[in-house]
Amino acid sequence: MKEFGLLIMVLLAIGSAQAAVLSGSIYDLSLSLVPRAVVSINTTPAQRDVVTDGRYAFVVEPGNYTLAAEDVRGVRVEGRAVEVVEVRGSGNYTIDLILEPVLDEDLGTVDLPALPIEEIVKNKSQLMWLAWLLGIAAVVEVAYLISKRRGLEDEKSAEHGDIPPRGEATPMPLEHDPAADITKALAFIKEAGGRATQKDLRKTFPCSEAKVSLILTEMEHKGLVTKIKKGRGNVIVLRAKA
Helix/strand/coil (H, E, C) string of 171-214? Predict the structure, then answer.
């Protein structure tokens, strides 16, 4: 039936001195015939043909035309080809079409609004300020965490009797006579059998941890006691000459 239609077109072309037959096959990218496609050409009037065997044919006058073919499946266009054809005179013209895939027929070209140069520069400046502020915030946070960690370490060391708490590191004058404080501490250690913990001294004497540490440091300097690290605390041992 298709061959009969092509024969009719050839006869029509012969009947017109200037008419030509434009025909060809329709392929996909794997060069396989596309069995069903819609082919059109912008003659006057326009011609459109639904092919079922992968081949098309049109009778046209000399001129320039746009030849288009589409692989339509349901409501989607799976493939498309467009060729510009020049027919210079009568005769047979063979133009094969290769359909290219259409990724998404529903997605057209989206025109994004172009921002003025001033707006771009303004946005860039704002981003730089934001990055600068975030950097400062990060530095402040790190400094705070380091300070907090050091404070916790100092408090822990002070509890163990290693160093006075932060803010009390500078030796301060004793509220009472240092010699009297040392005498009381020696008496307490002797009553305890010549050995006592720094924690016990702190409980006995109503003074700060820093003051107890100063008293013990002075006693150790004079050779009266020996401070021994044991576990998390200090054990104060009375020397023989004391």
Answer: CCCCCCCHHHHHHHHHHHHHHCCCEEEHHHHHHHCCCCHHHHHH
